[in-house]
Amino acid sequence: MASRSRSYTQLLGLLSFNLLLFTTSTKAVRVGVILHKPSAPTLPVFREAPAFRNGDQCGNHEADYIHIAMTLDTNYLRGTMAAVLSLLQHSTCPENLSFHFLSLAHFENDLFTSIKSTFPYLNFKIYQFDPSLVRSKISKSIREALDQPLNYARIYLADIIPTSVDRIIYLDSDLVVVDDIEKLWHVEMEGKVVAAPEYCQANFTYYFTKAFWSDPELVKVLEGKRPCYFNTGVMVVDVGKWRRGMYTQKVEEWMTVQKQRRIYHLGSLPPFLLIFAGDIKAVDHRWNQHGLGGDNFEGKCRTLHPGPISLLHWSGKGKPWLRLDSRKPCSVDHLWAPYDLYRSSRHSLEE
């Protein structure tokens, strides 16, 4: 993100007050208050992407569509645009990709215009996410970005998208896909609610606090479960099973416990681990080469893990567009750069 915009609620706290004082014949003073509503932040400007067309083997029926969900955070919009471009570029049937974007209501029109001008042929819809659904449930975590309401929108995804959608791929905005997403879409779920790359022999003491481990009733939740971690930034979700299993409410219940007792450190991930750890459909690690943004504190450079790669994910504090703009990129950031559609001031001058 080239610059960090203030959220609407933060701006409300900075409204300027013009006080007009009028003195009457009785020396009484009348005070008039004029409130100035803040305008939406100026969004980055992006170059128009090429048109990507289906191959001859692609179908054109509803069953042929691949549904992808992402959030539209004004601070991460540059990353979202790069992710969408990478998905289209590497897809055999790009016109069959159906994007479901979640955004805050007061930015919806500007975001729609930005996406439409960048991807004129994109099949997409923007859904309003109500931050009041989750704001009172969020507990402060180790990094401010993890505490934003949109970071929790994935929990409510099944309640927002059309009921006709029974499977969806959720993707974070700080990644690029370098393979055909159809391969991930067709993963056999084997009756599971979530499919994702998982990493077993995880050290769960890193995710949960002493308050959790000292409570026998809470610890029982993990008894018998394989200690397997998965990153919620790349998930295939059986939306029908999610709805029927009332998993939104189950996540909210753990958020309530967290609010009362602080049983974990990291944002929206631990409730997923408490519910799904060791009980997801594991997919190949190539579909989430995560951690490229470094840790949550310093965002130091990291190298690629060995093995084939289908998706590169800059989870962690460091984001490739910020490091590239600062002229202090990590080597892996140059893998993201070809998908960057940001029209910088230098580009504008050249044109």
TrEMBL record:
Q: What class of enzyme is it?
A: transferase
Q: What is its EC number?
A: 2.4.1.-
This protein's pathway reads: Glycan metabolism; pectin biosynthesis
Q: What is this protein called?
A: Hexosyltransferase
Per the record, the domain of life is Eukaryota
List the subcellular locations.
Answer: Endomembrane system
The terms under GO molecular function for this entry are: glycosyltransferase activity
Signal peptide stretch = 1-28
One CC-aspect GO term: Golgi apparatus
Q: How is this protein situated with respect to the membrane?
A: Single-pass type II membrane protein
- Give yes or no: UniProt keyword Aminoacyl-tRNA synthetase: no
A biological process term (GO) from this entry: cell wall organization
The Swiss-Prot or TrEMBL record describes its family as follows: Belongs to the glycosyltransferase 8 family.
Q: Which InterPro entries is this protein grouped with?
A: Glyco_trans_8, Glycosyltrans_8_dom-fam, Nucleotide-diphossugar_trans
Please give the organism: Raphanus sativus (Radish)
Arranged from A to Z, the UniProt key words for this protein are: Cell wall biogenesis/degradation, Glycoprotein, Glycosyltransferase, Membrane, Signal, Signal-anchor, Transferase, Transmembrane, Transmembrane helix
Q: Does the keyword Cell wall biogenesis/degradation apply?
A: yes
